[in-house]
């Protein structure tokens, strides 16, 4: 880590976690922990068909079952209409599609699609009630694969979906929801200048975010039309707004309290159970708790996209990239809105290129609607690009990191999707990786080393914070950003730094939607950047008030008062001879100097600095079984400013672990009828501790000038390079490349055998 953090009192320090005691003692309350008097158990009936018209639903037998207090179907919700795509954080949202995904109306679009729900006095009664609901299905042809869905004769999911982004507008519905394109320079002219061109195809499968806590909610509707919701979510305000849309309610009628989250990684930025629980509670007149089973999580909530991609890159013999082209076909699931856009934006993000063409397709298939997963879209597209770059390095005989240095993005680089980069640290990450002793360490038989880089643009967005100063000078900081990666610690550290008090004198709170101003979802690596800026504003507001109170006490102009080390002090000898006044002293006198001291901050943050990383991976391949063992892994990243280095290191290590699983093990497997065959962690295998070495995190600090403390998001970038780094290491170990993720033993053995032929 750089020396920049050393001038701060708290920034860059490994302080104790504010949430640590509650979590290690079990006091922390997660989504399923709340129990209210008279609470009912809610359960969801899900379609077992990949694609079917719903001709009718008979709930009479379920309603007659003793203990059943409410039964609902799509008919209990407003007609969602057709709706349009709107910008929503890192991606897009269509409220009509969202409502249909929460509960089916005319059609069931995938195995696991909710079609009805019940609330009963016991879980057993609720489960029995589900078995008594009779659904009249008309089975329809289905399509699972993204390229198959794009064929002219493919089963069409939506009669009203016409491809956006093409001219002329099609007159026939299609599974291709949209097409987008980014261009820079002239790719054909660029390829004409190339001494070597590599063009390859790649496929990836949908993968689960791997959160341990399933989706869970408690909802209570009262006689006055008000609703309380407690849930596991990355955004209480998102839950409030989207639930109101799905139910046709005013947002002011809904109060959402965020619970602790047992993992999310983007998968809890959407709603599934919340509108169902509210409607059941309204109908039954009692609170309702709903918790997905692990199988329901896999069948009924969103993974990230699967894909089919083509990447073509041309280079001169000395390693200068002359042209780069990519075609990205991303599965959206049953409803439009894959991360094809971010994937296209990020594909060539680490590089300073003159000629670029990227085309992205958003394609609907009969799978669950996809949800975000750390840097949504970027790990997929950059896996393909970084794999081709590795092959190019071998073809022209250049060190793969030297190839990246020759073409790396720097300040002033024009990105293909539009902006010019400000101060960034990509080249620094490559140089640090190249200089790391890991890169020169010897390798043994059947071992290989791979490298890869990653880019994520990071986001800002709307955030609010308030700060309350107690009579003893301690501070309570309220934000609406759920803590999924250490944001309470970073909020406390930044507040303490501005206030000049000890960090243990600051209490960070994640508040409900009625207690703090609007905050967008926790995602996109935005919270420490954006909500942190709101906290800094609130702390600066408090400091200004403290200076005013001290000036009033001393009867001098406020401009003559400075704030240093948690105290008001005269600006100089000409301002008067007064002893410094601490926060505690000023707060203790607040009743006679103007009343309570409260600060506030609110903004729509822009200027989120992009993040870059470069990873090194060593593997060993068993040529008899195809088993891949990760021997060593080093992740280097420009983190802007590490507010809490321990949390930052954890972000890098967690991203790498997830990326390794994506590379080697993880995929959704469907049978011929479109039913998911591995809906659980026994058959869907995520990495465990014994699968991984200790992952070394190297933190480089190139401060983001658009943030008071130099913050740039860190949580997205580390999941981007691992798939390519692992794939490149395997290719270098065995001399054969597997372009299809996951690189399972059968695929790898087949590639080794084909090489031998």
UniProtKB/TrEMBL annotation:
Residues 1-23 are annotated as: Disordered. One of its GO terms (molecular function) is oxidoreductase activity. Keywords: Molybdenum, Oxidoreductase. The keyword Oxidoreductase applies. Signal peptide: none annotated. Residues 25-141 form the Aldehyde oxidase/xanthine dehydrogenase a/b hammerhead domain. This is Aldehyde oxidase/xanthine dehydrogenase, molybdopterin binding protein. It comes from uncultured Pseudomonadota bacterium.
